[in-house]
Structure formats: structure tokens, C-alpha cells
Design goal:
- This protein is mostly helical.
- The chain is 70% helix and 1% strand.
- The longest helix has 33 residues.
């Protein structure tokens, strides 16, 4: 039997990196240019992206893990997301459009389609004599190449500089004070537990913000594409719904929208079509207006939202299984399901009582700072379920640590 045993040879770094970050995406892009269906191109791309790191591991363990994360998770999600778009649309993409989508989950053709769709809806509303559609509270800041002047880069590097200092502070904190694990829910009166989990949250935010921003800005400059922010000051959220829908990780939010929320809503629409409103029947009989006026009922939106939270839970469980298999599974699933339920309860309160959440329980006399504090309290109480596995494993303190000058860490340790 020994002669049939094949030992997997380690791939040199100089071959592994171009293959993962260059060759595999290029093959997917070339598949999009063929006449194959969305299903065929997606299946071929996902198979390649998932199997390559398993069949050709890199000789450097850290580079292998980073490449496997990019190929088996990020690129796979992007390939699945591309498969949800119209085939003629993704076939028309240029290489620059494709690269921009990999980096930001958006590109110029998709933005153009959204603009056309919004214009059609606006014209239809005018035809039906309806009030203009309410604009969303927040859209990601998109900096076009012509808008990226001195002021933009000053703000960009200032934001990253502050984030970097906070990240360095959290690293120094855990070098000086040992992390004490908490399981389940966290008491807001547990001072040590609150401080520990706040510092872990800073590490999570710092890694995502710094790595994504630096990567995205380089891609934007090289390809002369728009720069899209990943976060919108999530620490200022005044509700959980605002936190997840408008402030946290825009790129993954868009992916979840395309892969879970929108398909679920479409399925529910087919299984249980919403009733046509009286406005459409009294003003027009056209089929397009009829469909336009059928708004998804709240229980459809709630189910679709829970589907998005469930997909997010499964994605995070996969990350734990992949990077820290010694940690038990299930905590992240409980966390995201709880977040989904809390968001639904808040939505129902807003729907039944109008206005902000505070408008119901204190008749609108509660300032925004109370809503902000209440949201942070909810996030604090449930946070061990989310960041507990990463903190207990030391993943963000030992393995995936961004380079920080040693002298800065020592100065912060002396100060705290």
C-alpha cells in the first residue's frame, strides 16, 4: 500500500501567491466571457477556488492560511455572488470591473444598473402621483478617482492612523493583561470581562479596517476605480438594525443581500404574493405598476433577514472550523440568531409605534445618546458568543497580528 501513498508537495511561495491571487481569478474571469451558463461558470470557479489550496498547500504556513482564506472563502463568496447577476451583465464586465468587484463587491456596471432602476421607479412614482421614495439613511461613501484629492487622502490616512493606534493599544493590553474567557452572556457589571471583550472587538475592527482599506485603496489607485468604505463608524450605531444594515462591513452585507436576503424574499413573493395596494388599483391597471405597488409584508422581510443572519452564522462557523478547529462550534450561530430576533423585534416596535425605538418606550423624549448606550449594551451582553472563540484561541493576539512597532507597544504597556 505504501507505493500508492502520495505525499502532497509544498508549493513555493513565488508560485503559490500568483496562482491564488492571479491565476484563479483570471480563470473565473475568462469563464465569464464564455457562453456557459451562470450555473456552469459558478460551479467550475467554486470548485477551482476551493480545491486549489487543498491540493497545492504553500510551504509557508501563514501565507497558506491567508491564501486559503482568500480563495476558499472570499473568492468563493464572490463567485457565488457573480452567479446571481444577469448573465449578459457579468459577461460584459471588463477585467477592471471584475477586479473591482472582487475588492469591493461592487463595480461600475452594477452601479449603472441600480441608477437606471432607481430612475424607472422614480418615473413610475410620478406617473402614479406618489410621494418620492424615502432615501436610505446611509450609503457607502464612494470616492471616484477624480474626487481623491489631498483632502481625501488626509482624511483616509488620519482614519487609518487612529485605527492603527487603537489596534496597537489593544495588542499592548493583552501583552500586559491576560484574557479571561467568558461563556454565554456577559454581565455589564463584570468590569474585567467588559474591558477584555472591548479590546478583542478593537482587534477585530482593526484587522478588518486596516487590511481592507489598504488593499482596496491600492486596487483603486492601480485600476483607477472608485474607493468604497467598508465601515461607517459602527460604534455610533443607535440600534442593532442600524448597526448591521448601515454601519458594519458593507461588502459582506452586500454579499448576504445577494445570496440570502434577496433570493429568500423572491421565493416568499412567489409562494405568498403580497396583496396589491389600493393606490395601484385606483390609479392604473398596468401590470408593471401593479407589481411595483406590491410591497413585501413585514413577515416576509423578517424571514429574509433571518435567512441572512443564518447565512452569516454558517459563514462564521466555517471560519472557526477552518482557522481554529479546536474551538467548539455553535456559539456564533446562537449569536447571529439572537441578533436577528432582536432586529425583528425592533422593526415591529417601529412599525407599530412609529419613529425611533425610543419613540415607543419614552414617547420620543430620549436623546440619541440613550439609544446609542442601549445598543452598545445589547452588543456587550451578547459579544462573548461572537468573539469568544477567536479570543480564547489567541488567533488575533498571536497568529494573525498586524505589524506594529515594538517600541510603540512597549510605550503603551508602560502607560496602561
Amino acid at each position: 500500500m505504501d507505493r500508492f501513498h502520495l505525499e502532497i508537495q509544498k508549493t513555493p511561495v513565488w508560485i503559490y501567491l500568483p496562482a491564488v491571487y492571479g491565476l484563479i481569478p483570471l480563470i473565473h474571469f475568462l469563464l465569464l466571457k464564455t457562453t456557459l451558463s451562470n450555473e456552469s461558470t459558478t460551479a467550475a470557479a467554486v470548485s477551482l477556488m476551493f480545491l486549489f489550496p487543498l491540493m497545492f498547500p504553500c510551504e509557508d504556513a501563514l501565507i497558506h492560511q491567508a491564501g486559503a482564506f482568500a480563495s476558499m472563502i472570499l473568492f468563493v463568496l464572490r463567485a457565488l455572488e457573480v452567479g446571481t447577476f444577469d448573465r449578459e451583465c457579468n459577461r460584459s464586465w471588463t477585467m477592471i470591473d471584475y477586479a473591482e468587484f472582487l475588492a469591493s463587491s461592487d463595480n461600475t456596471p452594477l452601479r449603472s444598473l441600480r441608477d437606471v432602476h432607481s430612475l424607472k421607479l422614480e418615473l413610475l412614482r410620478k406617473e402614479l402621483n406618489l410621494a418620492p421614495e424615502t432615501k436610505p439613511k446611509w450609503k457607502p461613501h464612494i470616492a471616484m478617482p477624480k474626487d481623491r484629492g489631498l483632502l481625501f487622502y488626509l482624511q483616509f490616512w488620519t482614519r487609518l492612523g487612529v485605527t492603527f493606534l487603537c489596534y496597537a493599544f489593544a495588542l499592548a493590553y493583552f501583552e500586559k493583561y491576560e484574557y479571561e474567557p467568558r461563556y454565554g452572556f456577559l454581565s455589564p457589571f463584570d468590569v474585567k470581562g467588559v474591558k477584555d471583550h472591548l479590546m478583542v472587538a478593537v482587534l477585530v475592527y482593526g484587522v478588518l479596517e486596516l487590511s481592507n482599506s489598504c488593499t482596496t485603496i491600492v486596487v483603486s489607485i492601480l485600476l483607477q476605480t472608485p474607493y468604497v468604505t467598508i465601515f461607517n463608524h459602527p460604534y455610533l450605531a443607535t440600534s442593532l438594525r442600524e448597526f448591521w444594515s448601515h454601519r458594519w462591513n458593507y461588502m459582506i452585507k452586500e454579499t448576504l443581500h445577494h445570496l440570502s436576503f434577496k433570493p429568500t424574499l423572491t421565493l416568499l413573493y412567489k409562494l405568498n404574493p403580497p396583496r396589491k395596494s389600493s393606490a395601484s388599483s385606483s390609479n392604473t391597471s398596468s401590470s408593471s405598476a401593479s407589481v411595483f405597488m406590491r410591497k413585501s409584508p413585514s413577515h416576509h422581510l423578517a424571514i429574509a433577514s433571518m435567512a441572512a443572519f443564518l447565512m452569516s452564522a454558517l459563514l462564521h462557523e466555517y471560519l472557526i472550523f477552518f482557522f481554529i478547529p479546536q474551538q467548539p462550534l455553535g456559539e456564533n450561530t446562537i449569536y447571529f440568531l439572537i441578533q436577528g430576533i432582536l432586529c425583528f423585534l425592533q422593526f415591529r416596535l417601529q412599525q407599530n409605534h412609529g419613529g425611533a425605538f425610543s419613540g415607543w418606550w419614552l414617547k420620543g423624549r430620549v436623546p440619541g445618546i440613550v439609544n446609542w448606550a442601549f445598543t452598545l449594551l445589547l452588543l456587550c451582553i451578547t459579544c462573548p458568543l461572537f468573539i469568544g472563540p477567536y479570543a480564547r484561541s489567541g488567533l488575533l493576539m498571536d497568529k494573525f497580528v498586524l505589524p506594529v512597532p515594538r517600541v510603540l507597544v512597549e510605550v503603551i504597556k508602560e502607560w496602561i
